[in-house]
């Protein structure tokens, strides 16, 4: 899950006056008990909160609170469980009949029907709507007509979606996709009310969904206030009165506010505070495995970084990074050196395996030789770009560059390149303006090996920001998706991952634990396998 672009929200201001927003005014107590409000650190989303146009973490947090889809991922196990789906039936893994539970409404009173899903998916897929997650609808028959690779659409809706009756619709895919139902908990597949289309600007200003919370107000650069929706019909009702998401451009400031009693929850403890967090918070510090991997993306869109033979350059850079030393000294056991492009939370049966091998092991001599054989670093110096607003990336980027420089015997081989806010950074990423490797983190949308590989590395995929492309990789992913035997599908995905390794299409760094800290004011705090707080279960003491 990453980022996207959209014209309807203006760019974020270059600096946010925290003293006037998230840091001022003492504790935001928000009352107590079942009606008490939780205050939590946050960052402005890159785009408006359209489900099919949000594929970055901050916007995803809100969508997870205000929407419920056909499936929902269990907050403890990550298992895809039925939410609005009464049943999803198929006999061939290509044609699916989906029955939507009756009795669900949006918070504006509109009924959630089969049409709510079909219209939303057609909107998300259509080229004219410029939705970053359009790619997720790519397996539905007719997608090529509403979202052609070249030229203008020749249809308004996908032929593979049909409303059968009020609560039933059918989906026809272009090929077998045995795990298609498991993907339907992802926010891009959320239903939308008719108000989304009839007054789109009003909806963007104050999104209306069908989840346990409603958006009460949003002041960009300051905070978003969400309130519990008391009429929410689902089983996972909010255990608090609401959540106030406060914008911070430095998570060190957020941590300081937490320890000072001015904030209830920080869901990304900065690296610089890890040495203090146990003493500061005790058992109110959470450190658990999560479906997150950090990588360095390569700008294949830049001819200087896309020449024949440069796979050796990329492999050499990877071997110049002392992952173990960096995770030990900077991240204090909240990161684990990566050995593949997925996550240990998948388990061996789910596809986790040491695919990277020696290319993810530090070896200065081998690194130097590979970089030389690969033609050397373009321009003599590589700049690793990262968003500077969290305060947590500079340390590890500097450490990675120091490791590379030491291995190559050249103190100018690598430097860090900080870029403003997360939104500013994502805008540069998605418009291909970065000239060297850049920080990339992937937080799984659903716990399948397919989700770690296809969105990031398949040709023209939704989050393939580096524009890596490989016909062999794509072919193996297609074969894996069509395989109805889960074990065989996993093996095919691993073969695709081996292609990615040989190309070093991105440099895996480490797996990230979910880390959070919370105040004495709240309890029952947990992170889900996606490293997102389970906001609806938090209780205010």
Given helix and strand content, the structural type is alpha+beta
Helix content: 25-40%
Biggest sheet architecture: 5 strands, antiparallel
- Total helical segments: 17
Characterize the overall form: globular
Overall average pLDDT: 91
Instruction: Detail the poorly predicted runs.
Output: 2-28
Oligomer: single chain
Q: What is the strand content?
A: 15-25%
**Distance, first to last CA:** 33 Å
Summarize the structure.
This protein is of the alpha+beta class and 541 residues long. The protein has helices at 57-66, 114-125, 143-146, 180-183, 195-198, 200-205, 251-259, 277-281, 311-319, 323-329, 347-350, 364-373, 393-408, 422-430, 449-457, 471-482, 486-503; strands at residues 37-42, 71-73, 80-82, 85-90, 95-100, 161-165, 168-172, 213-219, 223-228, 242-247, 265-266, 285-297, 335-337, 382-387, 414-419, 438-443, 506-518, 522-523, 539-540.
Structural overview:
The chain has 541 residues and is α+β, with helices and mostly antiparallel strands. 27% of the residues lie in helices and 20% in strands. The chain contains 17 helices and 19 strands. It has helices spanning 57-66, 114-125, 143-146, 180-183, 195-198, 200-205, 251-259, 277-281, 311-319, 323-329, 347-350, 364-373, 393-408, 422-430, 449-457, 471-482, 486-503, and strands at 37-42, 71-73, 80-82, 85-90, 95-100, 161-165, 168-172, 213-219, 223-228, 242-247, 265-266, 285-297, 335-337, 382-387, 414-419, 438-443, 506-518, 522-523, 539-540. Strands 11, 12, 13, 16 and 17 form a 5-stranded antiparallel sheet that branches. A 4-stranded mixed sheet has the order 1-10-9-8, with helices on one face. Strand 8 and strand 9 (223-228) form a beta hairpin. Helix 12 (364-373) crosses helix 13 (393-408). It is globular. 54% of the residues are buried. Mean pLDDT is 91; it is low at 2-28.
């Amino acid at each position: 899950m990453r980022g996207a672009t959209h014209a309807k929200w203006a760019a974020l201001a270059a600096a946010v006056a925290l003293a006037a927003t998230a840091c001022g005014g003492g504790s935001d107590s928000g009352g107590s008990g079942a009606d008490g409000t939780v205050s939590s650190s946050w960052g402005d989303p890159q785009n408006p909160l359209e489900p099919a146009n949000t594929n970055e973490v901050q916007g995803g947090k809100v969508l997870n609170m205000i929407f419920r889809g056909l499936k929902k991922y269990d907050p403890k196990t990550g298992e895809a469980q039925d939410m609005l789906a009464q049943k999803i039936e198929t006999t061939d893994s290509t044609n699916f009949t989906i029955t939507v539970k009756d009795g669900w409404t949006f918070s504006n009173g509109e009924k959630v029907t089969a049409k709510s899903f079909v219209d939303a998916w057609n909107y998300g897929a259509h080229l004219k709507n410029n939705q970053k997650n359009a790619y997720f609808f790519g397996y539905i028959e007719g997608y090529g007509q509403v979202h052609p690779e070249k030229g203008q659409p020749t249809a308004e809706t996908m032929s593979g979606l049909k409303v059968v009756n009020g609560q039933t619709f059918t989906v026809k895919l272009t090929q077998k996709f045995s795990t298609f139902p498991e993907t339907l908990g992802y926010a891009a597949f959320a239903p939308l009310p008719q108000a989304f289309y009839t007054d789109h600007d009003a909806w963007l200003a104050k999104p209306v969904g069908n989840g346990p919370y409603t958006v009460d107000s949003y002041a960009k650069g300051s905070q978003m206030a969400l309130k519990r929706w008391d009429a929410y019909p689902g089983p996972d009702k909010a255990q608090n009165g609401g959540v106030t998401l406060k914008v911070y451009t430095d998570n060190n400031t957020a941590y300081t506010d937490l320890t000072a009693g001015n904030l209830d929850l920080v869901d990304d403890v900065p690296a610089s505070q890890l040495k203090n967090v146990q003493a500061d918070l005790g058992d109110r510090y959470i450190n658990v495995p999560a479906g997150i991997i950090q990588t360095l993306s390569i700008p294949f869109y830049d001819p200087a970084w896309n020449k024949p033979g440069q796979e050796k350059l990329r492999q050499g850079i990877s071997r110049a990074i002392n992952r173990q030393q960096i995770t030990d000294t900077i991240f204090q056991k909240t990161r684990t050196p990566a050995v593949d492009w997925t996550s240990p939370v998948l388990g061996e049966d789910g596809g986790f395996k040491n695919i990277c091998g020696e290319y993810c092991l530090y070896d200065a001599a081998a690194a130097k030789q590979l970089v030389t054989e690969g033609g050397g670093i373009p321009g003599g110096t590589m700049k690793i770009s990262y968003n500077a607003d969290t305060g947590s990336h500079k340390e590890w980027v500097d450490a990675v560059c120091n490791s590379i420089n030491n291995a190559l015997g050249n103190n100018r081989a690598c430097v860090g390149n900080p870029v403003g806010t997360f939104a500013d950074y994502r805008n540069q990423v998605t418009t291909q303006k970065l000239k060297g490797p850049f920080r990339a983190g992937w937080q799984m949308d659903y716990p399948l090996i397919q989700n770690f590989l296809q969105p990031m590395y398949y040709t023209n995929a939704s989050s393939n920001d580096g524009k890596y492309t490989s016909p062999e990789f794509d072919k193996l992913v297609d074969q894996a998706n069509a395989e109805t035997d889960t074990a065989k599908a996993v093996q095919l995905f691993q073969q695709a991952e081996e292609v990615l390794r040989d190309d070093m299409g991105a440099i895996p760094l480490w797996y990230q634990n979910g880390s959070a800290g919370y105040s004495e004011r709240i309890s029952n705090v947990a992170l889900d396998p996606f490293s997102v707080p389970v906001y609806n279960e938090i209780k205010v003491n």
